Backbone:
């Protein structure tokens, strides 16, 4: 085609221009296609690589699954064997049971199961090569192989593991068994060994010892052997007690708690009393007394399994040794023969108030952990043990008797040695926590608080600066003669200013700043209240009034500091810059010691300050080395624990339930639901805790019968006299009132009143026997034939005297899992539930 150029009037030839355009476009498309093909090929290669990596990883997971499932099969076999062997001892052919409680049976199961694991796989690095070979043997993926075309080979192997590790619970029994650092690898290589793929995974495989119930879980009540709603009294007994024990309180015995240190055989304190008895607690998880644990001319031993830490938990208001006043004896009072008692215990002690050695010649040796948790901060409010478990009666009684001024000592935990030749050995404790202070009782011991009161404003008790106190240390708090213008004590009174015998306290000890004050040169003046450095206390002896002057400190910490300064004092040298004041400390210390020696009230406290975690509110006098342990640093968490311990005590006293799902540190335990549940059942405080489980109203006649070859003995209230059970019993004893046991018992004893044990023998819990009786009664009530037993169905029925057998809130739960608490462990026997991975990671562990 020919076109004309308009500008010049010429014509130009344009052949081939379209072809060039087409060629340029085709070239561009070729380049673009090449780029796309290249990118696609690269992406394909990447996808192939990712696929092969994923495939190798999943193959590696299959290798790990082989190890996991192989272990699971073997461990399930060991578990089944341990279970069957234990069960055979729980339900033996002759109807007896070697393990009479769930605790004992489960302990045996753990020992058998753990023993088989350690024998097969070792522990803490033992049998390492053998265990590695066992793990390798579980693999189903071929260790080596070749595809049909010979192009690739596969390798699967257990490369390594670090060790098998055993973790024990608080009782020293296996809780977890861990295969640490198990490393597996799956490798796929090409014919050229330099181009291949592999995946490596490292993990811990944890075997948690599951909680197995060998008895139908009616409730915790079946692990008890003695439940006395109004107390337990061991009288002239020589007995071994196996199983949990609960002793309640009895209001008609309350007055005995205010009779001073002495009591006769006929007057006992509230709670659990040992009178001229020798008692041993063994295989016991809980010893609980809503009141006190008192020893009068008795020996009490609480033992733990050989080589194990303390497993018994002892909850009480007080523990004390007490004198026997030997009524009718020719010699009474302090000159009477010593009422020697001994306490030797491996336990965890939880005391709302004090440990007191009040009987001459008595001794106590404690091993485990000691918590004196009351600190005058938890005695009021809806969550207080005193308000919610009937303890307000005691506190209010003290307040009434002292017209509002006493009772602080009843809610301040301490340890006190009051009697001569007493020894307290605490060197075996792992923890010693005492959150209160000791008090000096200032009333006449032979009178009530009310008898010593005039206008109601007298001081009935004096707070010391010590959490662990020796009786003679109370002399430290008497104002020394150096700061007084009167003798101490002085005959007279401080109330009637116009009387001839009136004593003016301000004149007897002028305050700091007064020109007559003697405090300036006295070493302890800086710790005292400057305006009122002393407190006057009136004391009546043989009809005469005496005034004692006690030091009045600025605070509890000042008081503790003063005690420490005196008890740490050493004889000064005359060149000392503070010789005069150092001499005052030394002479005061010597004066106290000499007066103690003269009056015959020496005592001894032994503490291992290096091996024991110690916290006390006040000073701790340890006569092992004649020094004072400084441990008063503030620890707020102790007070949170104290409140929770008080609330746990309430659960025990109402439901025999330790509320193990709730810790002592986290303040999560609420009592409202417990109280609501009790109210809904129409139960009174006096009926608890036994009434929560037993229908006492169903007991209308005495009954003796045999069921499944076991004894059932039912007793009504026998007027004012207790019922008596003579001879040996294997079964259940339920008494609506008081009962006396004069023989050995294997099973369960529950009384709405007081249990008195006067036997030489064994009283032993046996959950298997009790369960067999209850199941038989349930069958009778429900009409189920013997050969058609469905335990799940039976659980909905009560026995004749027990309330609904299965308490839902006391069954084992796997919520809030904590492996060191057996009641919180996994309950399934499927290995997929109690075996799991921890610390999983790709690659090897370095």
Residues:
């Amino acid at each position: 085609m020919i076109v004309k150029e308009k500008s010049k009037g010429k014509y130009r030839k344009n052949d081939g221009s379209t072809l060039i355009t087409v060629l340029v476009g085709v070239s561009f498309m070729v380049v673009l296609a090449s780029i796309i093909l290249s990118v696609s090929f690269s992406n394909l290669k990447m996808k192939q690589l990712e696929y092969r990596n994923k495939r190798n990883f999943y193959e590696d997971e299959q290798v790990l699954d082989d190890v996991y499932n192989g272990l699971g099969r073997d461990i399930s076999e060991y578990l089944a064997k341990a279970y069957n062997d234990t069960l055979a001892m729980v339900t033996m052919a002759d109807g007896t049971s070697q393990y009479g409680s769930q605790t004992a049976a489960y302990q045996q199961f753990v020992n058998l199961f753990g023993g088989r694991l350690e024998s097969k796989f070792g522990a803490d690095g033992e049998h390492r090569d053998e265990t590695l070979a066992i793990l390798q043997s579980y693999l189903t993926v071929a260790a080596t192989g070749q595809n049909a075309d010979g192009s690739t080979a596969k390798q699967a192997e257990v490369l390594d593991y670090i060790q098998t590790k055993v973790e024990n619970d608080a009782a020293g029994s296996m809780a977890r068994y861990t295969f640490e650092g198990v490393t597996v690898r799956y490798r796929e290589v090409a014919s050229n060994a330099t181009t291949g793929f592999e995946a490596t995974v490292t993990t811990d495989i944890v075997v948690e010892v599951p909680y197995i119930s060998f008895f139908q879980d009616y409730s915790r009540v079946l692990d008890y052997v003695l439940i006395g709603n109004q107390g337990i009294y061991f009288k002239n007994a020589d007995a071994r007690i196996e199983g949990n024990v609960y002793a309640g309180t009895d209001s008609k015995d309350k007055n005995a708690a205010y009779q001073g240190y002495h009591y006769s055989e006929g007057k006992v304190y509230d709670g659990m009393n040992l009178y001229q008895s020798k008692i041993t607690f063994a295989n016991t998880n809980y010893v609980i007394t809503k009141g006190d644990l008192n020893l009068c001319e008795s020996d009490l031993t609480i033992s733990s399994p050989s080589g194990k830490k303390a497993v018994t938990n002892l909850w009480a208001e007080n523990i004390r040794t007490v004198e026997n006043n030997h009524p009718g004896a020719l010699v009474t009072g302090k000159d009477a023969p010593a009422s020697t008692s001994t306490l030797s215990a491996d336990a965890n002690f939880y005391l709302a108030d004090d440990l007191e050695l009040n009987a001459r010649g008595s001794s106590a040796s404690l091993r485990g952990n000691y918590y004196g948790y009351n600190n005058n901060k938890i005695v009021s409010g809806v969550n207080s043990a005193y308000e919610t478990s009937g303890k307000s009666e005691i506190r209010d009684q003290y307040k009434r008797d002292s017209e509002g001024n006493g009772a602080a000592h009843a809610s301040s935990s301490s340890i006190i040695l009051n009697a001569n030749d007493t020894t307290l050995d605490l060197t075996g404790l792992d923890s010693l926590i005492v959150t209160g202070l000791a008090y000096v009782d200032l009333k006449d011991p032979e009178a009530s608080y009310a008898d010593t009161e005039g206008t109601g404003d007298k001081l009935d008790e004096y707070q010391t600066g010590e959490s662990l106190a020796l009786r003679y240390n109370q002399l430290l708090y008497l104002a020394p003669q150096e700061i007084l213008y009167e003798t101490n004590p002085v005959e007279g009174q401080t109330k009637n200013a116009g009387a001839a015998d009136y004593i003016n306290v301000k004149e007897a000890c002028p305050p700091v700043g007064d020109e007559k004050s003697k405090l300036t040169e006295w070493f302890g003046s800086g710790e005292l209240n400057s305006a009122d450095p002393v407190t006057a206390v009136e004391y009546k002896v043989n009809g005469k009034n005496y005034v004692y002057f006690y030091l009045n400190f600025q605070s509890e910490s000042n008081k503790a500091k003063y005690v420490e300064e005196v008890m740490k004092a050493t004889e000064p040298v005359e060149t000392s810059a503070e010789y005069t004041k150092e001499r005052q400390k030394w002479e005061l210390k010597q004066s106290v010691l000499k007066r103690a020696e003269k009056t015959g009230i020496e005592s001894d406290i032994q503490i291992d300050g290096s091996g024991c975690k110690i916290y006390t509110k006040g000073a701790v006098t340890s006569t092992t080395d004649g020094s004072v342990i400084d441990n008063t640093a503030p620890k707020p968490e102790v007070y949170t624990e104290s409140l929770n311990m008080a609330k746990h005590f309430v659960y025990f006293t109402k439901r025999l339930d330790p509320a193990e799902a709730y810790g002592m540190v986290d303040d999560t335990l609420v009592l409202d639901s417990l109280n609501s549940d009790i109210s809904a059942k129409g139960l009174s405080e006096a009926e608890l805790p036994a009434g929560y489980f037993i229908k006492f109203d169903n007991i209308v006649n005495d009954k003796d019968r045999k069921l499944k070859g076991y004894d059932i003995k039912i007793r009504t209230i026998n007027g004012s006299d207790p019922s008596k059970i003579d001879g040996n019993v294997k079964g259940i004893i339920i008494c609506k009132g008081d009962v006396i046991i004069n023989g050995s018992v294997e099973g369960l004893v529950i009384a709405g009143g007081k249990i008195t044990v006067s036997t030489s023998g064994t009283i032993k819990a046996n959950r298997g026997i009790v369960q067999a009786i209850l199941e038989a009664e349930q069958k009778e009530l429900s009409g189920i034939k013997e050969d058609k037993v469905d335990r799940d169905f039976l659980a909905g029925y009560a026995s004749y005297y027990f309330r609904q057998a299965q308490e839902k809130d006391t069954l084992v739960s796997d919520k809030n899992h904590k492996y060191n608490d057996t009641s919180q462990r996994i309950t399934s026997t499927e290995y997929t539930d109690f075996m799991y991975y921890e610390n999983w990671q790709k690659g090897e562990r370095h």
In short: The chain has a mean pLDDT of 75. DSSP finds 14 helices and 44 strands in the chain. The radius of gyration is 39 Å.
